[in-house]
Amino acid sequence: MAGVTIVPDALCSSLVDEETAFRAVSDVFAAMSNGEARNFPVVREALGYEDALYGFKGGFDRAGQTLGVKAGGYWPNNHTRGLINHQSSVLLFDPDTGRISAMVGGNYLTAVRTAAASAVSIAQLARPDVKVLGIVGAGHQSAFQLRGAVRQRKFERIIGWNFHPEMLPRVAETAKELGLPFEAVELGRLAAEADVIITITSSFAPILLAQHVRPGTHIACMGTDTRGKQEVAAEYLAAATVFTDERAQSVAIGEAQHAVAAGLVAADAITEIGDVITGRHPGRTSAEEITLFDGTGVGLQDLAVARVAVQVAKEKGTAIEVSY
Ligand code: NAD
């Protein structure tokens, strides 16, 4: 019988911190650019039950010898049950034999790997002198996003806007934890004052519009991960240099789906961030350039952080080993 390592969700925050996730995600984006890692086509389906979206994201990282799949999705009514809306688990398989090797809780890891992706984009693309961090969104992911972002630049304050303003105290609490002043502002002010903007909502209509475009901004659009969702107007993308985790996902389910469909952005003008990490693309080339990162969330990100969780849990002796 083979051994399977189980790492429960509740353990993961003690195993994978922001810095570790940042490195794992940056490395796997680079592996994608080097042709050593690839994502498999995403399955994401509306169940027609509980308004849930359910699916699979998988891939194979030959360089990191990681093969697997994340299964799960988004249950918008979970908060009424005291659960977070995202629920997922990662299964890892031995690339040599195909046998299952690990089962890892995916809820914390999803949040920390998503925050790591936007943090990588800020590290690679934001101006060095940015001071004001703006966030659109105040759900479960927002705290992780802020924690990841502030590690990349010397931000002096955070400003935020949310469709449901009553949720903004969560953002204020996170800003306090990070030792930065926070102010809830109108959208116009957010766009005018923020040097870096993170959008992390489940919106199906653009929130930031053409009138909100401001030269020099870096914007990480992290909420759109399904066909039909949208946080930013197509015209905003047309004014920006567009980067993404994976071009195919960006065009199909990411923020760029609308701008590409409208003919405002050409699919082949979208650069994968791995190409910036590996030096194949220069990234930002002027202080006025608007850089936009379309973070769609790829399976390889999940596998990368799950692999670290398994490795550290084994080292710490906290992994659960079962025969299977
Ligand atoms: P959540 O349910 O905790 O919060 C939802 C957020 O969206 C809140 O800020 C809420 O006010 C806002 N919102 C809800 N309905 C809206 C509407 N009609 N218009 C505008 N805003 C609205 O969710 P979360 O866990 O914080 O996730 C936020 C989004 O990020 C989701 O859409 C989720 O699918 C996406 N996500 C993306 C990735 C990725 O890798 N790209 C990873 C995780 C989550």
What does the model show?
The protein is of the alpha/beta class and 324 residues long. The protein has 2 domains: 3-110 and 300-323, ornithine cyclodeaminase, domain 1 (2-Layer Sandwich); 127-297, Rossmann fold (3-Layer(aba) Sandwich). The protein is 33% helix and 27% strand. It contains 11 helices and 18 strands. It has helices spanning 9-12, 18-33, 107-125, 140-149, 168-177, 187-193, 234-238, 247-253, 256-261, 273-277, 299-316, and strands spanning 3-7, 37-39, 43-46, 53-61, 66-74, 86-93, 100-105, 132-136, 157-161, 182-184, 196-199, 204-208, 218-221, 230-232, 241-244, 271-272, 291-294, 320-323. Strands 1, 2, 3, 4, 5, 6, 7 and 18 form an 8-stranded mixed sheet that branches. An 8-stranded parallel sheet has the order 10-9-8-11-13-17-15-16, with helices on both faces. Strand 3 and strand 4 (53-61) form a beta hairpin. Helix 2 (18-33) packs across helix 3, helix 3 (107-125) packs across helix 11 and helix 4 runs parallel beside helix 5 (168-177). The radius of gyration is 19 Å and the shape is globular. The relative contact order is 0.19. Nicotinamide-adenine-dinucleotide binds at residues 74, 85-86, 110, 114, 137-142, 162-164, 167, 200-203, 222-223, 225, 295-297.
